[in-house]
Design a protein that fits this description.
Oligomer: single chain
Strand content: under 5%
Keywords: Membrane, Transmembrane, Transmembrane helix
Shape: globular
Protein name: Phosphatidic acid phosphatase (PAP2) family protein
Strand order of the largest sheet: 1-2
Mean pLDDT: 85
InterPro entries: PAP2/HPO, PAP2/HPO_sf
GO cellular component, one term: endoplasmic reticulum membrane
Distance between the termini: 43 Å
Low-confidence stretches: 352-368
Radius of gyration: 22 Å
GO molecular function: sphingosine-1-phosphate phosphatase activity
Order of helices and strands: EEHHHHHHHHHHHHHEHEH
Length: 404
């Protein structure tokens, strides 16, 4: 059954999110939940401080380097750089599943972070070691759950599932060794976050439990999601509407953190991947494309793909950001929507285009109580959507022209 050529389940799903946005805003659910959970979490953070201090008694430069390196390996920037290579290697199904799973983990994890708004371990007495700029930015987020632990559980667990399914091996020793390696890796990541002072024990436990729950849920739906993305009906328009609603279906933290920016970026990435794959699945992303380390795609050719692809997607990222910075303010002004900028558009920083909007669009929509909107959110969404689209559509087209 369809409604205006749109599947009924899509209409119901989007209406459900919209209803949740309206009801949670009217009832102020974020503050209610925070008032119940935050004191409990903070008590565990305080009581867990001696555990962190005991672990940090054994600090050493070698351990500092080891755990800092491991944190970088499972960071969002690493996955952002790794996933395009996975697409170009011929493992398209794994790449799109891990991308969508990463976006899902990022949204759920950051929502919980900002709902609870639980602090990280207090420093001093805890030593917080942040070497990279990415880690320094991560330290500005709230603590529960640990995103590194959550993402590692989900992505390494899904990768294990894919490898075992793809190889079709039934060797118990191989399965046991692979499972043990994943468990060791997750354990090192969680322990390392405590050692670095970035998280308390309750944050790691929260990330572990939530990660296992999300992974189990994803393994139940991933085939349905993939079938929808590759051969579903009304895919791109549905995902555009979903991405737009998810920007508003996000809790307001006690103090603004980078979590919302991460969520916006990966929502844009998921949008670009879905729209690009849906358009070019039969050409570039079906299950019979050439895979790396085979005669159809030797290592030298794959290296050529990397040399061509990386500069291309960086150029698209720059151009899409510049286009969005020009296009979105003009569109907002034409619709009478008051906007501001927190950094991308100097002319709009700390100065909304209008004190009060009189546009019809802003009056009738559910978010009309806001005085102005940060245009940087839309710019970031389009920027990363453009980058992701180029990974699965533009760049493979260039590969085809260059016989790569």
């Amino acid at each position: 059954m369809e409604t205006l050529m749109i599947p009924t389940w899509q209409v119901s799903f989007l209406c459900g999110i919209l209803t949740w946005i309206i009801m949670s805003s009217m009832l102020n659910l974020t503050r209610m939940i925070r008032s119940l959970i935050q004191p409990w979490v903070e008590s565990y953070i305080v009581s867990g401080t001696p555990v962190i201090l005991h672990i940090q008694k054994y600090q050493h430069s070698v351990l500092d380097g080891l755990f800092t390196g491991l944190s970088c390996v499972v960071s969002v920037p690493f996955y952002t750089g790794f996933l395009p290579l996975l697409f170009w290697s011929g493992h398209g199904k794994l790449a799109r599943q891990m991308t969508l799973l990463m976006a899902f983990c990022d949204y759920i994890g950051n929502c919980i972070k900002d709902v609870v708004s639980a602090p990280r371990p207090k420093s001093p007495p805890v030593r917080i070691l942040t070497v990279t700029e990415d880690e320094k930015e991560n330290a500005l987020e709230y603590g529960l759950p640990s995103s590194h632990t959550l993402n590692t559980v989900c992505l390494s667990g899904y990768l294990l599932h894919y490898v075992l399914s793809y190889n079709g091996t039934s060797d118990p020793s191989f399965q046991l060794a692979a499972f043990a390696f994943v468990c060791l890796f997750v354990g090192l990541i969680g322990f390392g976050r405590i050692y670095l002072g970035m998280h308390s024990v309750v944050d790691i436990i929260g990330g572990l439990v939530l990660g296992l729950a999300i992974l189990q849920f994803w393994l139940c739906i991933h085939e349905h999601v993939d079938n929808f993305v590759t051969s579903g009906q009304n895919v791109t328009s549905f995902w555009v509407a979903l991405s737009f609603l998810l920007l508003f279906a996000y809790p307001t933290p006690e103090i603004p953190t980078p979590s919302f920016e991460y969520h916006t970026a990966f929502t844009g990435v998921a949008l670009g991947i879905v729209s690009g794959v849906q358009q070019t699945y039969d050409q570039f992303h079906h299950e019979h494309v050439a895979r790396v380390f085979t005669s159809q795609l030797p290592v030298a050719t794959f290296a050529g793909r990397i040399m061509v692809g990386i500069p291309t997607i960086l150029l698209v990222k720059f151009c899409s950001k510049a286009l969005a910075k020009w296009f979105l303010p003009i569109t907002a002004n034409a619709l009478g929507i008051s906007i501001r900028s927190s950094g991308y558009v100097p002319a709009l920083i700390a100065s909304p285009t209008a004190k009060k909007s009189n546009g019809y669009l802003q009056k009738i929509l559910f978010f009309s109580t806001q005085d102005s909107f940060d245009v940087d959110t839309g710019i970031r969404l389009l920027q990363y959507a453009g980058l992701a689209w180029s990974v699965v559509d533009l760049v493979p087209s260039i590969f085809s022209q260059l016989n790569l």
